[in-house]
Specification:
Organism: Streptomyces lucensis JCM 4490
Shape: globular
Distance between the termini: 40 Å
Pfam families: Amidohydro_1
Strand content: 25-35%
Keywords: Carbohydrate metabolism, Hydrolase, Metal-binding
InterPro entries: Amidohydro-rel, GlcNAc_6-P_deAcase, Metal-dep_hydrolase_composite, Metal_Hydrolase
CATH architecture of the largest domain: Alpha-Beta Barrel
Order of helices and strands: EEEEEEEEHEHEHEHEHEHEHEEEEHHEEE
Pathway: Amino-sugar metabolism; N-acetylneuraminate degradation; D-fructose 6-phosphate from N-acetylneuraminate: step 4/5
Length: 414
Amino acid sequence: MATERDSRAPGGSSAAPGAPGGAGTRLRHGARPASTGPRLLTGAKVVLPTGVVEGGQVAVDGRRITGTAPAGAETVDVTGHWLVPGFVDIHNHGGGGASFSGTPEQILTAVRTHRLHGTTTLVASTVTDEMDLLVRQAGLLSELAEQGEIAGIHFEGPFISPCRKGAHSEALLRDPDPAEVRKLVDAARGHARMITLAAELPGGIDSVRLLAEHGVIAAIGHTDATYEQTVEAIDAGATVATHLFNAMPGLGHRAPGPIAALLEDERVTVELINDGTHLHAAALQLAFHHAGAGRVAFITDAMDAAGIGDGRYMLGPLEVEVSEGVARLVQGGSIAGSTLTLDRAFKRAVTVDRLPVEHAVAALSANPARLLGMSDRIGSLEPGKDADLVLLDAAFDLKGVMRQGEWVVAPQLP
């Protein structure tokens, strides 16, 4: 996926059209809602690692979930609703009319747009560009990671295959030379979380080993690799499939390609874009059947139009038309990322794909949190963890978002 470097002017508020309405509290740039003190949320169906608790409760004191209700806690009756952990997006390029390749103001607009849709932890994804610009952007994003606005950086490109470039600029692609890969890792100052590369290219396997040695996720994507080359990359340390099925050879009975290798290996977490455009429902079911609910991570792969709507956008030098929520290159018609938000991915998972709610929670929260090494803080509603949670009604529409004990979207109750 690619996203624009000079995005549309985001405006003065990070509240995006299409975000939850009503009484929801909307963040503005530089603003954080004041803490409302200890709270006890009661009566909901609470999704815990052990299963669904009917008429459950979640106690919050400050930034954390607690095992018992704090003294003087305000009781919030959310009977008839679901309480699930805050969503974790490990692959996201922007939203609200702004991208993670833009200015700090634009980056914050994108982050806060997705928070309004339940994404309480987000890894900012860059796109293929000149190496010096990627290095510069890595420095900017690392500052926001240090401030706690994002959970790290994902570099999608430039180390990808021209055969499977998608909406990336072919002129800017390059082989994954370990020295160049190391340059991006160093520029991120410890905040590089993941790099997507085509391991079959010269230097690919050595780069996978380099990333594994430095604790950075090596993700296989935008690749033309064979089954055997993909197995070699996994053995070298690759642990993620970047948007499985998309931007890679299809599954063949004589040439199974990367899909089979990535699905069959228990060391690999597979990303899926569950927007109804990138994947047929049968492909999603195939992934869950073979990888299991513990190895799937739903992502948005969102571009600037997420939370904004249809129109024309620029992806670097490439023009994109967003029509009926689907982003495609004007020249060639390739899908150019998505306009997805994770609340929509959740609702589709349980209402269209008919996944158990617990499986959707795993794919949206627990699995990506584990992949990021953050399971001690996020990904489940357990005492001691960050009070990151999403309130959904019986139809699985978003009705509230809490991040670190503060309402991003105040409860919208009848």
